[in-house]
Specification:
transmembrane helix; IRK_C; Immunoglobulin-like; single chain; elongated; 2 domains; 14 strands; transmembrane
């Protein structure tokens, strides 16, 4: 078994890193919202906490600064004096007043008076800034939590693909399944063959992508995924595997990327699951074991046999041969 670098891992992660962006890295800041959503959870939580902490401290310092400049801190016990904010006599009290205002708690002990125009302006600025920060950060966290990436973990692909005959034709097959009872609406599957090749003009294409037909013309690529399905690619004269035989499979180097897309029934969001098969994971002359059985009034799926295959008589020659 040969171990080599994959283009797409079995879990669907793409092994591609972008480097030497130069001035193009500023594009990430121009799309800041998407950049924050794409960050890992630990960085999202860190930004979330730091943004709110800094905003709270800055705004509390501004309220304390107004009280300090007006002299309210030194006349807290003067009943005849009207301060800007009642009962604000140090920084902790100014911080508590800001939190009460921002969170609309309103305990009633601290409140702004009408004889403080600068306080009224700061109050309006605080309300606008708080609404913007809440909409941005809470919206970012909500979008990140509602992403359907976890739904893709309940979509299964067989560990290996098989090559055998079906209806008298040599076919490349693999199996997909849905572990949840909720359906994938408008599920569609696509396959890409990733293989290096050289053109007749001498140009070398290191990761050339070629489409594998899994039933575009017949509609077989549109899946009703309520039970495990075996996806079939017919190897014919139009297939890139037209010259593939059992012997040449041992010397080939390619990767088949499988992309399953659909709409999550419960959320209405589009979900995508990916996997890949290298030449070592293509079994010549095998077929998948059945996993469906009829029980008392329902069909039962035995996922313990989902990845299991067995050998069947298959000609070792290519379709061309």
């Amino acid at each position: 078994r040969r171990e080599r670098q994959r283009f797409v891992d079995k879990n669907g992660r793409c092994n591609v890193q972008h480097g030497n962006l130069g001035g193009e890295s500023s594009r990430y800041l121009s799309d800041l919202f998407t950049t924050l959503v794409d960050l890992k959870w630990r960085w999202n939580l860190l930004i979330f906490l730091l943004t709110y902490t800094v905003a709270w401290l800055v705004m509390a310092s501004m309220w304390w600064g107004i009280a300090y400049l007006r002299g309210d801190l030194h006349r807290t016990h003067d009943d005849t004096y009207s301060p800007c904010v009642a009962n604000v006599y140090n920084f902790p009290s100014a911080f508590l007043f800001f939190i009460e205002t921002e969170a609309t708690i309103g305990y009633g002990h601290r409140y702004i008076t009408e004889r403080c125009p600068e306080g009224i302006v700061l109050f309006l600025f605080q309300s606008l800034l708080g609404s913007i920060v809440d909409a941005f950060l809470i919206g970012c966290m909500f979008i990140k939590m509602s992403q359907p990436k976890k739904r893709a973990e309940t979509l299964m692909f067989s560990r290996a693909a098989v090559v055998s005959q079906r209806d008298g034709k040599l076919c490349l097959m693999f199996r997909v399944g849905n572990l949840r009872n909720s359906h994938m609406v408008s599920a569609q599957i696509r396959c890409k063959l990733i293989k290096s090749r050289q053109t007749p003009e001498g140009e070398f294409l290191p990761l050339d992508q070629c489409e594998l037909d899994v039933g575009f013309g017949t509609g077989a690529d549109q899946l009703f995924l309520v039970s495990p399905l075996t996806i079939c690619h017919e190897i014919n004269s139009k297939s890139p595997f037209f010259c593939l035989s059992q012997r040449s499979l041992r010397s080939e180097q390619f990767e088949i990327v499988v992309i399953l897309e659909g709409i999550v029934e419960t959320t209405g969001m589009t979900c995508q699951a990916r996997t890949s098969y290298t030449e070592d994971e293509v079994l010549w002359g095998h077929r998948f074991l059945p996993v469906m059985s009829l029980e008392d009034g329902f069909f039962r799926v035995d996922y313990s046999q989902f990845h299991a295959t067995f050998e069947v008589p298959t000609p070792p020659y290519s379709v061309k041969e």
